[in-house]
Amino acid sequence: QAQLVESGGGLVQPGGSLRLSCTASGFSLDYYTIGWIRQAPGKEPEGVSCISSADGRTYYTDSVKGRFTISRDNAKNTVYLQMNSLKPEDTAVYHCASDFVPKSVCKAGYGISLPDDYWGRGTQVTVSS
Fold this sequence. Notes:
Layout: E1 3-7, E2 10-12, E3 18-25, E4 34-39, E5 46-51, E6 58-60, E7 68-73, E8 78-83, E9 92-97, E10 123-127
Parallel strand pairs: 2-10
Antiparallel strand pairs: 1-3, 3-8, 4-5, 4-9, 5-6, 7-8, 9-10
């Protein structure tokens, strides 16, 4: 069964860094665009970043530009989200998601409207002193 599994979350002080991983199970993510979506308590999901399978194109929401970097290692079947200079407002559950459509376009809001089955279960990121 195709599945996305996130890891790497935790508690970090403001200004700190974390690297999240999204590993594919049961399929190869080489062909698919992968997005990172976060949801804070009481707030709507927010598309943070995505990376295209076709051309490596990336997208970042304005609030994380210059601080977060998305990358993929197809040999490890994993997509990463390197998060630096973390702020308390980055606190959320971070999910990775894919529509499992080959060469899907990476753009703002990618993955938000997908059913839950297309998301991983998420990893908690808490930024607090």
